[in-house]
Write a structure and sequence with these properties.
It contains three helices and four strands. With 126 residues, the protein is α+β, with helices and mostly antiparallel strands.
Length: 126
């Protein structure tokens, strides 16, 4: 996706996406604030499209997996395969913290955006 975008990483369990309505709601709130656009997809349709992507990617039925839902400033939506977990559902596991300090004033600084990813990549290089 070109240009700025927001995203959510959606957890799938057995190729079934979880809490799609809440992910879409968050993207809608953030898109209105950051881009001045509306985003309110039909949650059941979005679930079907995510499940179809998981099927095409041959995600396992017995493990958790992930799909990334991106929403561009122009309202374009994109679904991307985002990997498979070694676990089924939430599990205690080793977590490597990732932190980046960037001083700037931005709306939705805490939201997962392409700008945040770019800032993190730049900080890692320097």
């Amino acid at each position: 996706m070109r240009g700025p975008y927001l995203y959510q990483t959606i957890h799938l369990r057995g190729r079934r996406p979880l809490q799609v309505d809440r992910h879409a709601e968050l993207l809608g709130e953030w898109a209105a604030e950051l881009f001045g656009i509306g985003y309110a997809p039909d949650a059941r349709d979005l679930e079907r499209r995510i499940a179809a992507l998981a099927e095409r990617e041959r995600y396992p039925r017995d493990l958790s997996s992930f799909v990334r839902l991106e929403l561009g400033a122009d309202g374009a939506e994109r679904l991307l395969a985002a990997g498979i977990s070694l676990y089924e559902g939430p599990a205690l596991r080793s977590v490597t913290p990732d932190a980046v300090v960037v001083e700037f004033s931005s709306p939705l600084a805490e939201a997962p955006t392409s700008a945040r990813e770019a800032a993190a990549a730049l900080a890692r290089v320097q």
